[in-house]
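Late entry, evening session. Most of the bench is empty. Finally got around to the prediction I had been postponing all week. Sequence below, unchanged from the version circulated by S.P.
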Amino acid sequence: MSKVNQWKCLVAAIVAINAFVDYAQAKPIAYPAKGQSQTQQDKDDGQCYVWAKNNTGVDPTANTAAPPPSSGPATGGGERMRGATRGAVGGAAIGAIAGDAGKGAAVGAVTGTMAGGHRARENQRAQQESAQAQTQGSIDTFNRAYAACMEGRGYSIK
């Protein structure tokens, strides 16, 4: 196996372990209200996890293992180009009134590009927030199903 593939496997393993740890920390806590042994609780926990996953279609470790959205420069949607175009047109009109349409267009294009970049970053941020809320909603649905299963087996859930 090449060094690159070894690193990729290592990174994938770390992401999977972190996803499991993240879910384990957010998972509902089950108390054995009817004196179930630790072995029985572990068995019930595993079976309820599978039942909740199958009935909701949600795997919380897969949801938390999704790679975070890119945080690089805002590039999506062409906002910068549209901003530059609008700015250049507006700048040319203002520049024509002032006597130098070319200079006005250049200033307008730069200003429009900056405004378009701002819009792109805002859109990217909104998409990230929406994805995060959707993931949390899925995990909440899974947790309710898991809790129902464990309560049905005699555990107190918090």
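Two things to note before I forget:
The two ends are 46 Å apart (CA to CA).
Residues 34 and 154 are 6 Å apart (CA to CA).
Will write this up properly tomorrow.
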